[in-house]
Write the structure tokens for this entry.
Amino acid sequence: MKLYKDKETKIVESKLKKIECDNCHKFIQNEEFYYSVLTFHMLWGNDSAESSEYLDFCCDKCLIENLSNYLNDAGKTYNYQIEKCFYIENED
């Protein structure tokens, strides 16, 4: 016979509430386009995951400023992936 003990478990769920531009620090408004950027390199094998950096930009100007800085310091990472996204606020 198996005897069980009841245990109450609390689950914490993270929901996106706001997105802040990593360049000008303006909050991206509901139903606006923004850019999500991932920079990384693959020089260290599996440990390269530590080089990953996620950034968000509110407009073309902020993205271009960051990309310009990135190109001036290209030794830091070798990949710059840009995704254009549409932000919709969570209602709860």
Summary: The CA atoms of residues 9 and 84 lie 38 Å apart. The longest strand covers residues 32-40. The first helix runs from residue 60 to 72.
